[in-house]
Amino acid sequence: MSPSHTGPAAAAASAGHSAAPATPGHVVVVGGGISGLAAAHRLAGAGARVTVLEATSRLGGKLHADEIAGVPVDLGAESLLARRPEAVGLAREVGLGDDLEPPAVLGATVWTRGRLRPMPKGHVMGVPGDLGPLAASGVISPAGLARIPLDHVLPRTAIDGDVAVGEYVAARLGREVVDRLVEPLLGGVYAGNAYRISLRAAVPQLYAAAAGGRSLIEAARGIQRRAAASTATGPVFHGIRGGVGRLPLAVADACRAAGVVIETGAPVRELHRTGPHGWRVVLAGRVLDADAVVLAVPAPAAARLLEAESPAAAGELAGVDYASMALVTMAFRRADLARLPQSSGFLVPPVDGRTIKASTFSSRKWGWLDKAGGDTAVLRTSVGRHGDEGDLAWDDADLVRLSREDLAEAVGLRAAPVAARVTRWDAGLPQYPVGHLDRVARIREHVGKLPGLAVCGAPYDGVGIPACIGSGQRAATEVLATLVPGAEDGAGE
């Protein structure tokens, strides 16, 4: 995006008109995570006057680049799904295109049934399309493997609107496939429970294929065939040199260059309509008047702000549940990690009863981090998921200790880290249970009755970075369509 406005006013001026029409108006974006910043970026590009209000002292939300032992690291999300265009496209727009970098090492393992085992190839979110690699991996027991082929002869399992991933897969392939493959993979995305997560929301390709056929194995196989025949090329994932947490900061810089006002430490207390097309945003000791508002905040905060103007939307938002988790980032002497397995890390099925749910060998996974570390190498573990958050009651020192104990058993790592940081994401990930997409549709229906208002972020369209960016861009487009030309009253104190 060009630093200058390219909206209607600029277009009219360039065409030689003596008086340019007004810009689309003043839009307040509540929330300075990647969704809100993506919305602000698009709004500014359309010529709107934009104010972003972030309650905390830091922009970026769950994207947070920092350092440990002098080495730059991500303390939140660390990769972008490259097969969706939104995140990679936005990174390129804000000047980070040359810093996009695919993983240097691919392929995770599974710590289950007493040892590390290769993640079998040929699956769709843990649902096997090819039983050969699954049998060779040793992830599933002989009894579990014997259960899987029944999928070909069992009657069709009906899907009445929606169903939990775990429930459906267990009915077709047995619980062991869910517990040792589907569960850790889904847990890595949602920090959730496969027996509650919606198949329709979390794995829509598999939902569509399963709804139209009988065999789940054949459905997975068909998805894999179509993927193999696709013309899509390039990496599946990208990181960003210096950390994915650089992305929201670069978007914020581009927004400021386009005239966007960004305030941190600015929690919004109330939100009220001031007429058919106006809004008043109440902060501590002052108010802002706006022609439109984008709410890019977690569901509980959105529920609180909408309680006065849309009790129905607020009630639905209050029903969105969240999971808490913690990331334990540790820096070691490089020599101490020399014997780690040649993989990007490992997943841990909750059924195995360990403290950690996964570990990423960060310096091995990301070439930029390997180079930046010098004699220091970094890895991290994750702790906690929805319904299994008891370990989060431990203090930071104990979470480091418990992570080290699991790492010692899993990969033989007994060296002490030179530094460790625990990042807690309390109520950090919205859950997508059965019926979640219907709830989102109801929320949007209620919000749609309030002109000049849109919601966006992880509770609605997906928890991944591209999905959040796309959600913010969609919200910007929605409010731009409702703005009245010339209705720009400005902000008041």
From TrEMBL:
Pathway, per record: Porphyrin-containing compound metabolism; protoheme biosynthesis
Flavoprotein keyword on record: yes
Location in the cell: Cytoplasm
Gene3D superfamilies reported for this sequence: FAD/NAD(P)-binding domain, protoporphyrinogen ix oxidase, domain 3, Protoporphyrinogen oxidase, mitochondrial, domain 2
Annotated ranges, domain Amine oxidase: 34-480
GO terms assigned for molecular function: oxygen-dependent protoporphyrinogen oxidase activity
Start and end residues of each stretch annotated as Disordered: 1-20
EC numbers for this chain: 1.3.3.15
Annotated catalysed reactions: coproporphyrinogen III + 3 O2 = coproporphyrin III + 3 H2O2
Protein's job: Involved in coproporphyrin-dependent heme b biosynthesis. Catalyzes the oxidation of coproporphyrinogen III to coproporphyrin III.
NCBIfam families reported for this sequence: proto_IX_ox
PANTHER family: PROTOPORPHYRINOGEN OXIDASE
Membership in a protein family: Belongs to the protoporphyrinogen/coproporphyrinogen oxidase family. Coproporphyrinogen III oxidase subfamily.
Name under which the protein is recorded: Coproporphyrinogen III oxidase
Species in which this protein is naturally found: Actinacidiphila epipremni
Gene label: hemG
